[in-house]
Amino acid sequence: MGLSIAWNQIDIIMFDMDGTLLDLAFDNFFWREVVVKTWATEQDVSHEHALLTLTPIFKQQEGSLNWYSLPYWSDLLGLDLQALKIQHRDRISLRSGVQPLLETLKNHGKILWLVTNAHPQALAIKLEKTGLASYFSDIISSHDYGYAKEQVGFWQSLQLQKPFTPARSLLVDDSESVLHAAHKYGLHVLGIEQPDSLLPARTNLHYPAISEWSEFIHELQNSLIKNR
After folding, report:
1. Around Cβ 218, how many Cβ atoms within 10 Å?
2. Of the residues 45, 101, 136, 204, which has the fewest C-beta atoms closer than 10 A?
3. CA-to-CA dists, residue 79 to 35, 40, 105, 184, angstroms
4. pLDDT on residue 213
5. For position 217, what pLDDT does the model report?
């Protein structure tokens, strides 16, 4: 993993949700298959035509708050995306090792925040399905702050409303653009090699990244033992 920080100097660990704690396979399936197929049916067009039409529309909003907003896309596409997510919620799943990871961190006295770009509608569905909420002292959706995590305004607003010391905080996130913004703001950052279990692990990442949560637990425990 190669994360060159001392764990006894980290107070708060902020976790992303989709692709970090949850398998991104669900979201990729939902947006690339369910949404496209449903829209194609509603518009009475082929799947291929729907994909060609929707892909550039999605791309235009990438990295913005709209990109993550169920109400925005529901209005634009004329679909009830919240109902569609609920319909397919059985596919939502934790990445392997998440529960032991969070329990270990809490046992070592770390403060855990869930910091996500997920819209509150999607967040509620996923928390209900996974039971993640009990592990976190704060659950933060960027939609409540007016900026996506990719934007420096989010980190400025977050620090104003929930004071934290960037140099004693770690963000774990599968998005390199989010990691870049957080790192620029002064946080330690850690990426995810394989956010979607059905796709190959990514290579040539710009920030330290893990492949398995067991790596994270092992390094944490070794560091704390050394620094007793």
Report:
1. 12
2. 204
3. 8, 11, 40, 37
4. 87
5. 80
Cβ 17 vs Cβ 127: under 8 Å: no
Distance between CA 182 and CA 188 in Å, rounded? 8
Q: Are 168 and 10 in contact (CB under 8 A)?
A: yes
Q: What CATH class has 7-23+94-226?
A: alpha beta
196 three-class SS: coil
Token duo for residue 125: 């569905």
Q: Where are the domains of the chain?
A: 7-23+94-226, 26-90
More confident residue, 218 or 87: 87
Cα 71 from chain centroid? 19
169 pairs with which residues across the strands? 12
- pLDDT attached to residue 88: 97
Name the DSSP letter for residue 111: E
**Above 80 in pLDDT, residue 223?**
no
Q: What is the pLDDT of residue 222?
A: 72
pLDDT of 10-69, one tens digit each?
Answer: 999 999 999 999 999 999 999 999 999 999 999 999 999 999 999 999 999 998 999 999
Give residue 43's pLDDT: 96
Query: Smallest Cα–Cα separation from 118: which of 156, 173, 169, 60?
Result: 173
Give me the helices (H) in the chain, please.
25-29, 36-43, 47-60, 70-77, 81-87, 98-107, 120-130, 152-161, 176-185, 213-226
Q: How far apart are the C-alpha atoms of 24 and 20, rounded to whole Å? A: 8
